[in-house]
């Protein structure tokens, strides 16, 4: 290796020697070549021998600079061998290679310039090399984007035939995705540089014949999937809200939203492409009123015509459709309803009775949901979660939904949707169906005392007060009996856990206007029948379940089969809040009469004795530390904004110059600008990391602060119990 390195440094004028040296180093460091050798020829040879040689080679930083200098060689075969070797170095020792590249002033610029090379082999090789070098490195990603890589990559995609192109299109799209994923500054540059408009050309499907699945080659399917991923990363829920909103507006303005809708609505699209298209469409409309309204008003050119929302629901409830497409359709429906009270109202209104003179045009969204809600297959889970999102964070619609009546059988008297959901939840033996309905009922009960009143005192519909009196509380006692049952497996534990939560919600949001079922009465019944410790244990089992943890990680549902359909992401967030309320509400407080009552944590704390001064001091210190960290985080964010604005100013200044001036400035200030860019990028990254660390520490301190308050509350409860015991024994308590 030393000899090869010496040849590259000293004999660079001899092109043949340089080429042989590069090939030799490539063979030495490439472990894939050793895999092609017979196993008996590799006795006592480690499998990572190439990685070890790479580590030895990278110890001398001059070696990497020498390789980069060879990219300027006039011979194309030398440049290609140099890039192949750089690619192997990146695969074997990525971090070291990235650091060495950042230390070379014009290293990234040389690589990006090769994207415009007339030799397609060199161009294709550098795409693969940049894909390796930009992995998990925001600084290199920003520099590559700043060097106008977006423009060159899109030009290559056009020249290769867009989605109908070869694997080169896939490589370009994967590099685009990597440059944009989780990189806000690159996303801003992509949106403001009119690159979304140019990207939209990949989604043009001009004729119905071109959309037939048998005409989609395997490569075209992959190209379309990666193109959808690029759109998704621009509007991902984890991005900054303002950045996502800007990208959503651009997607609407350039017609990309219309093209995504066309792909979703037409027939013949392969399932994989359809799934990615639905997800891209979903994230493009999430929380954006204008885009949501566009989807709501979209009507498919079918016979009879159907609204786009109904098409999504039909796909979601079609049991013959693949589960990944059904899950994607549910996610798109959820995104349509996200922060969209008008959309929620429109769906719920289709469930309410209409005057006889109002004509019924086709099957409504409400009819589709009700039809699936009481089915015997997985459609019941999908309908339950969809209906959950129709009333999520909307108390008025929860009350309106109580007016919905159904006819379970032909000729039978109509019953309320509320009543039918509870009965079906009890009668159905399918685990997924019960979980979906319980999540719907828990969401329905939360913050809706009217629903709890109907639950505690269900109306028979006959107006007979005696019948109502007999039925009063029957639903509640059924749930309590089920919550007390023994868990035979994990599935039953989850069902019993949600049943317990539903009963606890009846205590927390109790309306107090049902005789015999007041808040304190229900609390005493739960303590006697289930036990407070068992209630908390039931809820803890849910939050620790693997299915719950998986669902709570991201809004998109990741499943392989319908058996994996258990929890919804939005419900997991609601559950965490309800679990917190149950833990802080179910505290025992002894009143003057000695009757146990259910009070909130804040009430318990306010009625307790004066706290220990030491605890007060510690609590005050935590508050002061949190305030200091909040100020420091604010200062760091302001500093990041200033640096980003300075960087954007430099970019605008360069773009505003004439070509001649820009060329002269680049010759004079190239080194200085490159150093400034790298320094600013490193500074921004360090500040962002420090900001994240401080935010994490702040969250930890808040958790510790809450734990201290919980311990303080427990201490107060114990003191009050002991005082009561002392009084009962005849003692005096000061």
From TrEMBL:
<dbReference type="GO" id="GO:0006886">
    <property type="term" value="P:intracellular protein transport"/>
</dbReference>
<keyword id="KW-0333">Golgi apparatus</keyword>
<dbReference type="GO" id="GO:0048211">
    <property type="term" value="P:Golgi vesicle docking"/>
</dbReference>
<dbReference type="InterPro" id="IPR016024">
    <property type="entry name" value="ARM-type_fold"/>
</dbReference>
<dbReference type="InterPro" id="IPR006953">
    <property type="entry name" value="Vesicle_Uso1_P115_head"/>
</dbReference>
<dbReference type="GO" id="GO:0005783">
    <property type="term" value="C:endoplasmic reticulum"/>
</dbReference>
<protein>
    <submittedName>
        <fullName>Vesicle-mediated ER to Golgi transport protein</fullName>
    </submittedName>
</protein>
<dbReference type="InterPro" id="IPR041209">
    <property type="entry name" value="P115_Arm_rpt"/>
</dbReference>
<keyword id="KW-0175">Coiled coil</keyword>
<feature type="coiled-coil region">
    <location>
        <begin position="619"/>
        <end position="646"/>
    </location>
</feature>
<dbReference type="GO" id="GO:0045056">
    <property type="term" value="P:transcytosis"/>
</dbReference>
<dbReference type="GO" id="GO:0048280">
    <property type="term" value="P:vesicle fusion with Golgi apparatus"/>
</dbReference>
<dbReference type="InterPro" id="IPR011989">
    <property type="entry name" value="ARM-like"/>
</dbReference>
<dbReference type="Pfam" id="PF04869">
    <property type="entry name" value="Uso1_p115_head"/>
</dbReference>
<dbReference type="GO" id="GO:0012507">
    <property type="term" value="C:ER to Golgi transport vesicle membrane"/>
</dbReference>
<dbReference type="GO" id="GO:0000139">
    <property type="term" value="C:Golgi membrane"/>
</dbReference>
<feature type="domain" description="Vesicle tethering protein Uso1/P115-like head">
    <location>
        <begin position="290"/>
        <end position="582"/>
    </location>
</feature>
<dbReference type="InterPro" id="IPR024095">
    <property type="entry name" value="Vesicle_P115"/>
</dbReference>
<dbReference type="Pfam" id="PF18770">
    <property type="entry name" value="Arm_vescicular"/>
</dbReference>
<dbReference type="GO" id="GO:0005795">
    <property type="term" value="C:Golgi stack"/>
</dbReference>
<dbReference type="GO" id="GO:0006888">
    <property type="term" value="P:endoplasmic reticulum to Golgi vesicle-mediated transport"/>
</dbReference>
């Amino acid at each position: 290796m030393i000899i090869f390195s010496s040849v590259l440094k000293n004999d660079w004028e001899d092109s043949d020697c340089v080429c042989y040296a590069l090939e030799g180093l490539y063979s030495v460091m490439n472990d894939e070549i050793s895999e092609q050798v017979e196993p008996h020829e590799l006795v006592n040879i480690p499998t990572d021998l190439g990685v070890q040689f790479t580590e030895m080679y990278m110890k001398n930083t001059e070696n990497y600079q020498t390789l980069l200098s060879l990219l300027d060689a006039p011979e194309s075969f030398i440049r290609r061998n140099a890039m192949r070797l750089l690619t192997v170095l990146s695969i074997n020792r990525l971090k070291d290679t990235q650091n060495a590249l950042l230390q070379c002033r014009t290293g990234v610029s040389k690589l990006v310039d090769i994207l415009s090379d007339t030799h397609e082999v060199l161009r294709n090789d550098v795409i693969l090399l940049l894909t390796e070098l930009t992995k998990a490195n925001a600084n290199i990603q920003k520099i590559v984007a700043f060097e106008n890589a977006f423009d060159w990559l899109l030009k290559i995609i056009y020249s290769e035939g867009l989605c109908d192109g070869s694997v080169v299109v896939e490589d370009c799209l994967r590099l685009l995705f990597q440059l944009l994923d989780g990189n806000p500054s690159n996303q801003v540059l992509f949106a403001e540089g009119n690159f979304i408009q140019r990207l939209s050309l990949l989604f043009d499907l001009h004729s119905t014949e071109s959309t037939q699945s048998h005409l989609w080659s395997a490569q075209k399917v992959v190209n379309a999937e990666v193109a959808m991923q690029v759109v998704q990363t621009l509007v991902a829920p984890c991005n900054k809200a303002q950045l996502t909103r800007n990208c959503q507006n651009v997607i609407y303005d350039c017609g990309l939203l219309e093209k995504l809708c066309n792909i979703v609505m037409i027939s013949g699209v392969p399932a994989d492409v359809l799934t990615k298209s639905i997800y891209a469409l979903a994230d493009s409309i999430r929380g954006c009123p204008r885009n949501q309204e566009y989807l709501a008003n979209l009507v498919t050119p079918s016979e009879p015509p159907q609204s786009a929302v109904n098409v999504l629901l039909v796909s979601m409830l079609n049991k013959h459709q693949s589960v990944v497409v059904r899950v994607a359709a549910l996610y798109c429906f959820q995104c349509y309803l996200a922060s969209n009270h008008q959309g929620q109202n429109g769906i719920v209104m289709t469930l309410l009775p209409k005057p006889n003179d109002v004509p019924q045009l086709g099957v409504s969204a409400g009819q589709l949901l009700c039809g699936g809600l009481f089915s015997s297959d997985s459609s019941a889970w999908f309908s339950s979660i969809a209906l959950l999102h129709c009333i999520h964070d909307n108390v008025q619609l929860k009350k309106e939904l109580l007016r919905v009546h159904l006819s379970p059988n032909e000729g039978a008297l109509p019953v309320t949707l509320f009543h039918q959901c509870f009965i079906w939840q009890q009668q159905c033996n399918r685990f997924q169906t019960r979980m979906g309905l319980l999540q719907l009922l828990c969401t329905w009960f939360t913050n809706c005392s009217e629903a709890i009143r109907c639950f505690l005192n269900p109306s028979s519909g006959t107006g007979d007060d005696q019948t109502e009196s007999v039925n009063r509380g029957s639903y509640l006692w059924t749930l309590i009996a089920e919550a007390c049952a023994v868990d035979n497996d994990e599935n039953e534990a989850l069902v019993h856990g949600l049943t317990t939560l539903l009963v606890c919600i009846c205590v927390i949001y109790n309306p107090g206007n049902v005789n015999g079922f007041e808040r304190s009465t229900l609390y005493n019944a739960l303590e006697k029948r289930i036990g407070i410790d068992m209630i908390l244990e039931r809820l803890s089992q849910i939050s620790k379940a693997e299915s719950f943890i998986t669902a709570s990680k991201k809004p998109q549902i990741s499943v392989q089969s319908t058996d994996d359909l258990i929890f919804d992401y939005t419900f997991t967030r609601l559950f965490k809040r309800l679990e917190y309320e149950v833990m802080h509400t179910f505290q025992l407080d002894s009143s003057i009469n000695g009757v146990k009552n259910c009070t909130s944590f804040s009430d318990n704390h306010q009625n307790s004795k004066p706290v220990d001064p030491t605890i007060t001091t510690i609590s005050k210190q935590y508050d002061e530390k949190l305030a200091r960290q909040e100020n420091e985080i604010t200062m760091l964010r302001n500093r990041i904004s200033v640096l980003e604005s300075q960087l954007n100013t430099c970019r605008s200044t360069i773009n505003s110059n004439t070509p001649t001036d820009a060329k002269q400035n680049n010759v004079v200030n190239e080194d200085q600008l490159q150093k400034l860019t790298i320094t600013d990028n490193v500074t921004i990254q360090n500040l962002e990391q420090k900001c994240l660390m401080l935010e994490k520490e702040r969250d930890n301190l808040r958790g510790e602060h809450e734990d201290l308050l919980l311990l303080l509350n427990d201490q107060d409860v114990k003191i009050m119990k002991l005082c009561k015991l002392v009084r009962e024994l005849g003692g005096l308590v000061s």
